[in-house]
Amino acid sequence: MANPSVFLLMVSGQIESAEFPEFDDIYCKYCFSYGLDWAITSGLDESITQITKKSRDEHQRFVWNFPIDATFKSTSPSGWPQLVVYAYGLDAFGTDVVRGYGVCHIPITPGRHRLRLPMFVPESSSLLQKLTAWFLGRRPEYVNPRVVAQGEGREVTRVRTQGFLTVSFNIIMKDMKKLGYDILPSDLQNPTIPAGVAGTDAAKAS
Amino acid sequence: MAEVHVIGQIIGASGFPDHSLFCKWGIHSGGGWKILSGLREGQTQVDNPQSEDAAYFAHPIDIHFATKGIQGWPRMHFQVWHQDAFGRNELYGYGFVHLPTSPGQHDIDCPTWRPTGTFMESVSQFFLGGGPHLKNPDLIYSGADRYKLQTIAMGKIHLRIGIILRNFDKFGIEC
Fold this sequence. Notes:
A: 206 residues; mainly beta; four-stranded antiparallel β-sheet; B: mainly beta; 6% helix
């Protein structure tokens, strides 16, 4: 069989729950941000959850239990996909305002992972802007939510972390080892020494 | 050529006197290492968190190295700065970690320190801010002239770094 040139990454998981101490009536959207080498082969690139209220007990949790399913293919791990979640809520006047952006890389090792993402919003630059934003319901938000998945240009933003979101992932990969990529530490009890490593021929000769 | 992919995040920082923080980071590697894609340094957003016990940056790191040897394994160094309500920046700490050498996901806590001056300087630092900085930032990740410094401990930076290696087993490297 010909050597594979792409590897596959399958993500199945869910946006489980969140804590936002000061807010109620929140829904989330998510999208994936990935580099140029990557492509989605199946599953949704973006989606929206339901609107939920917080629980009436002392935990005050929002629960969505919203499924995430996607399969990616790529030729190189650069630009590894990131999950960008952005939560919206209703303010006192009934308009949609953003309550938090959160981002994390899809885990790089197979198995089950549970992550707690801090959710932050951009802050207005002055007190007057904060007051007008509160009145008019036009809080600062990112024009393109994928900007939180990048490292450039972040140094000019001021944000406020307002809550936390819990996501869980189950990761399966195909053909990473065939392309030469190691994602787990080498097993010295059962070493796999590739043909062509110096020393194996000498051992065979003797 | 062996390749190393660093895929992860600077999650945040905790344990500092105040948590309106940002972090400047950079990666220093030996001469045989080359960056094929990704940024070698950057600065995170400024976080002013609602709950005052930690600041969160969520700054993504995605770097692809190629190398001919394992000498000079990359180190990531940090400067944590505090931004107050007036927009003034004050140094809170320096720290560095080596990038993990084994593939997989790693949760790392990087401790930080800050240079201290004389007693009078620390009194004026308490009232006015400011304080000594390193003249040469290389000292953050090298041990060469450290014996000349007096420092005090500050908080920790939290990282979640994933490492993917390629072709290391072809060269007989076990990691």
